[in-house]
Amino acid sequence: MATLNANAAQVLALMEQAGQPPLESMQPVDARAAIAQGLGALQGTPTPVEEVERVTARCTHADIPLRIYRNDGGADTPSPAIIFFHGGGFVLGDLDLYDRFCRRLCVASHAAVISVDYRLAPEHPFPAAVEDAAAVVRWVHAHAGDLRVCPDSLSVAGDSAGANLATVAALSVRDDADLQLVHQLLFYPVTDLSQESDGYERCGEGYFLTTELMRYFKQHYLDNPRTARDERASPLLAADLSGLPSATVLVCGFDPLRDEGMAYAEALKAAGVPVDVLNIDDQIHAFPLMDGAIPEAAEVLDTVGHALRPVLAARQPVAS
User: Fold this and answer.
1) Cβ atoms within 10 Å of 271's Cβ, excluding its own
2) CATH number at residue 56
């Protein structure tokens, strides 16, 4: 096993010294406030972007708030777009917590980033977030002209539980005749809620995301434990992963989700999906949200964003 990154180790020590009660001991509304305050204190200066726009996706089942980040210099042609789903175990997280993340990804990728404020559990248990994710992808595609994005250069991305929603959304729209996603960018994805991988035993305590916290998330998200085997909750169990867009899967060495992220990358490859795996073996879960304390976070987001530029631009129309 690799050595834990020194900056990450310092963050974990600070968390322990703070003596805050574990998130899983709190009611969701209190846990949301605690994670916003705790991670907010570890974030750096926001990356400037040229435009941030708030839009509502008026889908048939719900109105879903979006926040769109643009840094295209007022280009005449529609830009590629990344539809992004935040993390937080389907229970925590919001647009504000991921604001810096989305800004950095926007600048690094040369794409618009559309951050999705999907419904959270336990107020809205499974499959509400899944329904929101697929509906937003279709809504963005249908309204691409109004949003100034290219309908043929749309990708999905997500962080942890949001990465689960991103790839499940890709599965949901795979057979849509006129919608073909370009890529899926999955940061340490949740891919199997039906069981606990070996990573839960190896890294389930002391590295920010714990086994008990994951159990808390599952308890609040799943309306019935049997639904954990539904491929919309656990895409690793999907009968057919073929035909999905190419993927970048980022995993962290000190993360209970590492094994299921690697297993999902292998399952995608076995189904014929082109996959790049980025293994940050010295980091903890959600470290890109801690860029003020872990400088390597910004470097990783820049690296991933730069690598996406030619992928996202491949279907972008050429300016006349």
Assistant:
1) 14
2) 3.40.50.1820
**Domain ranges, residue 43:** 6-313
Active site residue 255: yes
Share of the chain above pLDDT 70, in %: 98
pLDDT given at position 225? 87
Per the CB < 8 A criterion, the answer to whether 150 and 75 are in contact is no
Total number of residues shown for the chain: 320
Number of domains in the chain: 1
Catalytic residue among 192, 230, 255, 291: 255
Compute the distance between CA of residue 164 and CA of residue 158 in angstroms, rounded to an integer: 7
The answer to whether residue 145 sits within a structural domain is yes
Q: Give residue for tokens 């929101």.
A: 132
d(CA 168, CA 130): 7
* Banded model confidence at residue 313, pLDDT cuts 50, 70, 90: confident
Identified catalytic residue from 160, 172, 197, 234:
160
**pTM for the structure as a whole:** 0.97
d(CA 268, CA 275): 7
What is the pLDDT of the chain when averaged over all its residues? 96
Inter-residue contact 88 to 115 (CB < 8 Å): no
Please report whether residue 190 resides in a domain: yes
For residue 276, how many other CB atoms are within 10 A of its CB?
Answer: 15
Any idea what the Cα angle at residue 103 is, between residues 310 and 289, rounded to 5°?
Answer: 105
Residue 1 included in any domain: no
61 is catalytic: no
Residue 99 domain-assigned?
A: yes
The active-site residue out of 110, 141, 183, 285 is 285
Whether the CB-CB separation of 247 and 171 falls below 8 Å is answered with no
Q: Work out the average pLDDT over 108-112.
A: 97
Which H or E run contains 156? strand 149-159
Is 109 considered catalytic here?
no
